[in-house]
Amino acid sequence: MKISELAHKPKLINIVVDDQEVQELYNDAIEFWCYDRQPLNKFVKFANMSEDTYPELIDFCQDLILDEDGNKVLDGEKVLPTKILLKCVNKVVEQLGK
Q: What is this structure's pTM?
């Protein structure tokens, strides 16, 4: 296989947070979108983060929590409840680790 066959433009993928706590709090799953691949500079930044840089990880992931049109959901004025933000961050990290 040629490496050029693996290179594609990023596409939005749907991510669902539907654990028991979310179901109990909202009676529904929460969904957001994220690109399936990231530019190398972003991925390297992500790969070098550790538990010591968790605040930076949250800031980094906020740029990756998107609506269905690819727009950032969190823009400085709008924030998520902390529990939901942490669940979304975990889902983004899980996706980037694939």
A: 0.80
